[in-house]
Amino acid sequence: MKITQFVQVVSEYLQIGIGVLLASIGLKAFLLPNGFLDGGVTGIALLVSSQTSWDISILLMVFSIPFVVMGYFTLSKRIVVKSIIAISLLALLIKLESFNTITEDKLLIAIFGGLFLGMGIGLAIRNGAVLDGSEILGIFIYDRFGISIGKTILLFNIILFSVTAIFISLELAMYSILTYLVTAKVIDFIIEGFEDFIGLMIVSKHSAAVEHAIIHQIGVGMTIYKGESGYGNTGKQSETRIIHTVINRIDIRKLTKVLDTVDPDAFVIEFDINNVKGGVLRKYLDRKKSRSLDASLFITNEPNDAN
What we know:
By secondary structure, this protein is α+β, with helices and mostly antiparallel strands. It contains 11 helices and 4 strands, in the order H-H-H-H-H-H-H-H-E-H-E-E-H-E-H.
């Protein structure tokens, strides 16, 4: 194994360990002492433990077994091994940890319990491990039946919180849903980062001026497509240049002002971007670096690969 690979593996397991620690704090310091639930397999273990006083560590391990088996047939062996280690470590920490009462405010419990749990699960997922079997269930069902992972996890949690509301307490179910929402949002932040990108497709009669303004005033890359305009009521057809670019959402107002100045009649389509990788685009979206681009990066007569 090369040194760089070794360092990467060590880094991954170290971050998984930190994630497990954060998740255990969320469970043991906030959720468990107050009978709160989370979604997924962790929520089932919390629910059963609160009603039977059985050891949450053992329940978490037992309830995770079927999902780990599913993962064996769906995920890579590396992910399964990491997940087994992470879940076992989480159960051990929950068993060993002891915290004094931090707060009795139910809202704070739901928020901070979800915050710590979300950070922990997010760090684990980002480094190739799963702390909650519901994600594995979602992947397994998607692989077998084509049902989206999100829908499977949502249905799983609807059933869990419905059972909680009917047989235990509606108030507890409501606070548990809040915990789950905080957890899910924090997981998204940890996995995807705090950067938020937006894609734009711009059609303008003054495309050359728009391209120049985007390069020099916004400082991002773009890809130019050749197209034809005029399909519609006018019946006219003419060649046009279609600008495709991606910017940080922070800059959207700045770009709008630029377009209003250069061509207020430009046709603009905005769409969300889940991930940005490679090209000069990602480099210049980093706000810590220079915002200026060399105009020679762009070809004005032919389609290019700036993105």
